[in-house]
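Example record

One chain of 380 residues, shown exactly as stored in the release files.
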Amino acid sequence: MLRSGLLIGLIAVAAATSPAPAADNKTIKVGMLEMLTGDLARYGIPLRDAGLFAVEEVNAAGGINGRKIEALLEDVGASPEGSVQPALKLIQRDNVDILMQTGTSGHTLATIPIADEKKIVMCNMSTAEGITQQGSKWTFRVARVPNSVLDRKFAQYVAKETSYRRVAVIYGNDEMGRDAAGLFVKELAANGIQPVADEQVQPGDPDVSAQVTRVKAANPDAIFVQGHDTEATKIIRTIRQLIGTQVTLLGFDQMMTTKFIEQAGGPANLEGMIIRTGTLGEMSADPDLHRFVDAYHAKHPNADMLLPMVQYAGMQVMFEALRLAGDDLSHENIRNAFYKVQNFKTIFGPVSVQPNGETMSVVHIVKYVDGKQIVLKENY
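Predicted structure tokens for this chain:
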């Protein structure tokens, strides 16, 4: 039977089943690596806010095993290498019990060697396939589906469930974009489809018309677009200007946010777009998810909910592992407790930690129709 994923329910279970609080009433120190400055702060600030919301909520309910969570934040900026010194500060200066890495895949990959060397658990919600292929015994991808699952399944869907055969690919040339596009192209080829065009956009490029013009010359019937919102929205606007609406766009979950839609030129530019996602978000019927959305909107009325939902679900998994660790907050015991997280209900559904540190593998296919998002395939 699934346990309740609501943090209040989690603490209620903890109070009933866990040992009495330690006499010293020590806090549990969570080191949070956040993108608070630079171009990626637009992601980092919502993730930070949701992380702190989860901490406040669990502390208001009594903490974990009678101990309050103490969140210690460090800014990692926009550069992956920016995670290194902040992570060391949190470990060596602040003596945190666990790390929560909320940066990009690049940030996570840069921090894995530190987590391994210092033997401390690092949770993350990045999507690059390579994160769980480093051999790390201390890194856990909590509450996020990796690109290795998302984009392979998406390519299979395109090949088997649609009539598109002239597929082009255009993506931001960063860790996330290269990883997702490479997996998508490889799986398309395995299903008999060779892309008619494959174009890169450098992060910060002011003009992507040359790449889109080359894509247009290949006469595609569908275009796979990948990249952070600055690049992806620019690509979409340029496609609609130079190619028009007759070509179908293929995208990913961050394209479902209100901010992305606005930056991409409005709902008309996304009409007919097919998206792969690891969560249905507010399209889900799960009452726990909607209770979280309502509570979060009460504090952050104008928030796009995708990133806060991801962060909150990740915090749920981390809190459950800490609960299972009991009074022994040694790094090794916390790590071992993660593997005990099995069939645990989060707002995204059940999570079971795998030996390689993965937790989720579901893929949903969504389409924009008349300005609304509809589910084409659930658990594809």
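Notes: The domain at 7-145+284-351 is CATH 3.40.50.2300 (Rossmann fold).
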